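Can't paste images in this forum, so I'm doing it all in text. The chain is below; anyone willing to post the predicted structure tokens underneath?
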Amino acid sequence: MATEFGPRGLQLVLLRRMADHRPELVEEALRELGASRSEMREANRHWQATLRARTFPRGEARHRLLLGAPESVAERRIGDVTCRALRWPVPLWPGLRFEVMSGPGGRVWNEWLVRAPGATPPAPREVADLRPWSYVVDEVARAFPAARPLEGDAPTRWRLAFADPGTGERHVAHFTYGLLQTVEPQVGGVG
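Text version of the structure:
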């Protein structure tokens, strides 16, 4: 099994997970990459097998071996704990980075897409501004201050419940690897 997976493989893995929500955007991205659906599935299988392999290094070391050296590494304090944020470029989304947050000992806590330093999309002001693949979790949370996280339906998925400030209508935004996929009206009180 080859160790370095690289940006192309990472993008195919991200697209595989996004295909459940945005198949039309994934098809477009696959054409841009010159990749097939079977190549996307194989990249995902390879990624999952490598991450689960008992003989492969654990924690952030796995990501370094799969993706190469990160573009940047920064320390962050979360409460009393110092974490590390490792970021890699994602050519399909030049304004984003794939971020791996690790805690003491290099244990991975989170991995998702975040905005690249210096890249700032227009701030969404209402639900109609929330276009798929245009915003990451923290941008939507900041734009709608009363937003609250909901449990996702898979480890790579997040959801935010929020109200449109103009209408007061409740909505749920769905994210895959931290990138906005869909926004829908909130059904019932929980979402």
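Residues 127-185 form one domain. The helical segments are 6-18, 23-33, 37-52, 60-67, 137-143.
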